[in-house]
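Listing 4. Sequential folding, example run.
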Amino acid sequence: MSRKHESTPLDDRLAAAFTDGATSDTVAALIQEAESAARAAGDAAEQARTGALPATADAATARREMENTVRHERLQAVVSRLRERLTQVQAAEEDDRRRAAYEEARAERDELAAELARVSTRRSPRSSLTCSGASAPATIASST
């Protein structure tokens, strides 16, 4: 007889951590929560294994112990994957921050370039001296 895995709110949040909308804060919090849940499941399984349960333990208790062991192992594996995911999400967030800073700097650069172009075109008659003609060499000669 096979039982279908029942999803819990934690399971749903764990799955959501591997989607595109996950943030590093969310993933970091889930790591803490999953580690805590894994410890609790491991402790419950260990308690059942060591006989700390009443002698009246039955098949249902044995099944809970087995389920706790499986949950403990599954959560430990998920924590490992979550740590990898956290690194990925943090890198993506850093890329987004850098991209935003670049776009802001680029917009400022474009504004300054446009302003420089406006100022340069207004001053161009004065700054467009040519070396042809008699006045240019005389100016150079008189300044020496």
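-- end of first protein; second protein begins --
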Amino acid sequence: MGEFLSVERRGKIAILTMIKPESMNAIGTHADCDDIVDTLRALGEDRSVSAIILTGSGKAFSAGGNLKSMQDRKGIGVLDQPDSTRANYRRGVQAVIRALMDCEIPMIAAVNGHAVGLGCDLACTCDIRIAAESAKFACSFIKVGIVPGDGGAWLLQRVLGYPRAAELFLTGDRFDAQTAKDYGLVTEVVPDAELLDRAVAIAERIVCNPPRALRLTKRLLREAQHSRMSDIVEDGGRLRQGLLLRSAHHEQATDADLGAVDALGLETVIDLRGDDEREMHPCRRSDNFSARVLFAGGVTAGLAPHLQAAGGAIDVETARARMIDTYAGMPYRSALVATLRLYLAALAEYDAPSLVHCVAGKDRTGFAVAIVHRLVGVHEDDLMHDYLLTNTAGKIEERIAQGAAHIRARYGAEIKDEAVRALMSVNPAYLDAALATVRRDHGDIPSYAEAVLNFTPAMREALIDKLVV
């Protein structure tokens, strides 16, 4: 792997060791973050791995973020501007926490020493935590004048409850391994020399079980933390085919395209564009078109997300960063929110095919479809797979060429081809940014839907009844 983690295999067990003892295994660079994310992705794809142990080398588990890099306004921490800081956190430490939380392999934290700040949060992402007698813990962000922007404020209270998490974050107090056990942060405290052997012994009790059942059980345990019991005990259903459809807008649809749309038997078309976009790009309809078209009032300044992100002569990295920032604000775009309310209400009311679209059919449409999928129980891996079909389904090269023409007409020919492709395709980091905003503010997608989209439990039951078999 990279320079931050080493990987040791013991049969079905993978031991991940943070190998920067000179900095107490502090995470200081995006390369460190990428190493963790890439390692977890590779292990997740390896079906021969049934348990992971995460530990540190030297005297620390992890001292968290590298304070020197933060003080120099470099690396993974605070930068000079709020926007760049948010993007820096999303690309770095938040990506690490998401990767750990999304890992479906059972994980054991063997806390061998100091677990401070981000280091404590790394341990909290693991399913089982044991500590050496010498281990020390602290949620000490407050001591250096920063907030737990890595996701720790969400994590710790789910492990310890709100009052204890609030006490630890607001005081920044340090506490020892036995106190951690008393709090419920770790389940065992063992002599330092026995720590790894004890973690391996627990892992061996895990890996003797069927591997697929292990991953599914962990998935259920995680989802049960923010789901109703009825959601968890439902037998795994599947979506009915031919009811949930999506596309780009139909301004340039051919007669053959219109005939294909008519053949779908649509009851409802949901148009996520703003009033100004509809005026500039009216959709073609056949004489036989009979579906009702739903949209909410509101303007978008004529800018689809990929156009909003495009301004100026930008390179591919800037294009991606701007798309991530644009997606991060998507859950609260007023015209989009208003139309999503109509969309969910229509799905709950009508047992018939519907089609949702924006301009390119990838950004707002991708977010809308992801929300609907999650509300009816589709796993996030599967909704991400569906979102990424944008990059392979349909006439992707034709769409990129058309998008390039629009972007260059608006902003000039200086924009690089690679940047256009980044704007006109989709990327897991884009949708992750929108969903991260949802989780930051509401904890999960169902809570966001209830608070922002006026989605009720009765509507959810209706959706499942109509869309899931």
